[in-house]
Amino acid sequence: MHRISELKENNEAVFRDIFNEYQYPLYRFLYQKIDSEFYAKEVVQLTFIKLWKYRQQLDPDLDISIQLFRIARTTLIDEIRKLQTRDRHYYNYGASPAGKGIPDDSTTHLISYRETKAKLFRLINMLPPKRREVFKLSRIHCHTNNEIASMLSISPKTVEHHLTHALRFMRPFFSLLIIFYILVG
């Protein structure tokens, strides 16, 4: 409670102490939610930026850790929504009637397909190396879990673990139906 008062008085040393104390717990919390080092680190940074920016609005009767984790959770939700909004914008491109300088449906579908496929491969490349390899062998090269386990000298349960975490990471960005459509289509 005392630290919140000091934060409100623009005490940068207290802010640094809070950052040093909570950056890793926040990172672990976010990483468990999205399974992405990059996005977990980004949201941690945004969380501390918001903490400083809105320090005057902090509740002095509520523990700093509760407020920090709330900021992190809402920031993560906001970032996922922004990505989904951008995706919808791309998918809706050309939705106006044809003949007014807007591509027809077949061109629009081709553009959407290419953009979606490119995004999928960017997401795949963000996966840790072993998880990326397992995902590609499973979803792109259509190997069974047992085949992948044999090829990589790991257990089928480990293959399943990698696939589960890969899909959990991608789910906020794509529905499973879109992933299936891209890989099969």
UniProtKB/TrEMBL annotation:
RNA polymerase sigma factor 70 region 4 type domain residues:
120-170
InterPro entries, per database record? RNA_pol_sigma-70-like, RNA_pol_sigma-70_dom, RNA_pol_sigma70_r2, RNA_pol_sigma70_r4_t2, RNA_pol_sigma_r2, RNA_pol_sigma_r3/r4-like, WH-like_DNA-bd_sf
Protein name from the UniProt record: RNA polymerase sigma-70 factor
Record Pfam families: Sigma70_r2, Sigma70_r4_2
Residues annotated as transmembrane: 166-184
| NCBIfam families documented for this protein | sigma70-ECF
What are the RNA polymerase sigma-70 region domain coordinates in residue numbering?
19-84
- Which biological processes are named by the entry's GO terms? DNA-templated transcription initiation
On whether Transmembrane is a keyword of this UniProt record, the answer is yes
By its UniProt entry, which PANTHER family does this protein fall under? RNA POLYMERASE ECF-TYPE SIGMA FACTO, RNA POLYMERASE SIGMA-70 FACTOR ECF SUBFAMILY
On the tree of life, the source organism's domain of life is: Bacteria
Family as reported in the entry's similarity comment = Belongs to the sigma-70 factor family. ECF subfamily.
Assigned keywords, A-Z: Membrane, Sigma factor, Transcription, Transcription regulation, Transmembrane, Transmembrane helix
- One of the record's GO molecular function terms: sigma factor activity
